[in-house]
Amino acid sequence: MDTARQAVQDGYSEYYGRLCVGQICPDLDIAWRARLEKIFSAMPAPWCESIYQELLAPIGVLWSRKDNTFGRRAGDIGLKAFVESECPTQLQALAAKCLASVHAIEQTNSTIDIAVQLEGTLDGFQDGVQTADAETLPARRALMDKYIRTAGSIIKKKKDLQAPPSQRGLDADVARTFINEVFLKQKLLGPRFFVLRRRQLERADQPFFRDFLSQQQSVRRLEIVYTSRYIFVLAAPADVRDNTFSARRFLSEEMVGAQMPAGSASYSCSFIRDNRIDDIKRVAVFKEQIENTISLSSQVSQSVRDTLERMEEHYDLRMRPILFSSLVVPSVPLKNVIAQRLGQYKSMLETGILQPLKKCLLQECAHPLDFSYLFTGVRQVLAEIITDFASFQSQSLVLGDTGAERMQARLQAYAQLLLKRRERIFSSEAVQNWQEHSDAAAGPRKGLRDIIKKYGKQSLKLRKQAEHDEQEQAKESDSFFGRLLGRGKTEDEDGALSEAQLEMKKIRRAAHLEIINLFTKWRDETLQLDHEPMRFMKRQRCYAVCAGSNGLDKLPVLAVFPENYNDFDPGNYLKMFMDKRRSARDSEPSAQSAFAVTAVSEP
Known about the structure:
By secondary structure, the protein is mainly α. It has 21 helices and 8 strands. The chain has helices at residues 3-21, 32-41, 45-56, 79-85, 92-107, 111-123, 136-157, 172-189, 198-202, 207-220, 247-258, 280-291, 302-324, 334-363, 368-393, 402-420, 428-432, 434-478, 480-485, 491-521, 570-586, and strands at residues 61-64, 69-72, 223-226, 230-234, 269-273, 526-528, 540-545, 557-562.
């Protein structure tokens, strides 16, 4: 292999190792130590060291370099202690439900009952997210994190788990692994949950991955999850509102299948142990299960398939190399390099993936299966993009960069808005009413601009008048007669200043309230972000607002403003907006302008 090809392969190998390590969760993974030992034994020492320092040390994992073994430091406070000491009053009812659920899980060995408890409790976290304040959202996220990790730890330790009867050899170990490493981990990581994509499968050494699974993933749009012991292959449900990774779905269909004649059942999920992929008989049974999997079929038009193929190729061959190429550029500050890289990445994403997606919807999709196949495929591409970007962010040179944080928030928001607005995008009826849906998607951004302009002009006018008055007073005080008479501010002047301050407070309060009401009105077209804490979101409300045609061909913009109206000055936002407009007229927008804090100022 020539030097250039070897460098590319090495770069991909390090990236893939980093990706796998980034998914490790000791509270959930059944065999996380063995998994890490296997990954680290296949990597050069420098890679191991950097990946350990950036991904494992921060979560309390210990690594013995001498014998390549792993351990853990004591973790943060558990669920019960968090509820008693840190959980806000607004979340006490949800916290009580979490504690009751954990107790119920401790008392049962039925995997079906455990799945019901988990899904019922986690569904409760969706209620009230849109109206929650900025202080509550991090606590809500922390509560969910504690609940998932506590429940997963309990399930890991159970010795008498009972799996439902099945035709495919489902046992307690398989059920435990699916619940913890597929269902719970997907809930914990959200869009960052790692599933194997076709091009990753094609790079594998084993023919099982390279030849069979890669072809099946492409044709059927399957989700392939490689856990610490098993490979699970899942088909998307017919109803998009159902969770592909649902534990109840996985376990319940085993019960249905067991009641049917052997060989007559169709399933949505197949599995095989990773140490059996060279066993000819085991693989034959697994392939038969895959053939009987209910999934999107060959009825999908070839043009839609080709569009998805080009999207995946564009990302794999152009975007990912841009993301992971060296950030060290001589004589250029690191911050500038990152900003330029992010601007290039965003441009390539919109021109190579989002815009072709819009074109495919409007010109190539005709049958309901086309829309379903495209939606499933795009979600898989976005999942890969978001997972890779999280790996990019974990690098020491990028960690804490606010531009990268904003890009990650926008990527995740795009994926969530796509799911939230699916019926307005992925159907024949949606295409027929495209302009109507586009107008609705643009409504929040237009409304936000109007509010900022209205109150921003009032704020700037009032501030300008106050500054003028203060300057005039200062001139009089500094004059010869003012100094001679020892003149200070008169009662009328103090009153005028107080009145101006009161008027400014009224403007801020009114603008702040109108913005919150705007997002309440347009809640179907916007998304309040509740991702893990990011520096630019601290003590702020952050909403994602659709951009582009029907919110599809551009990443959403972020509207970020203080939680407290006293800290909110619409005049500053208006000035920022006007500065951006002038900059856009004078020259091309810089890479950094893609990450402006307010929706009105982002391109």
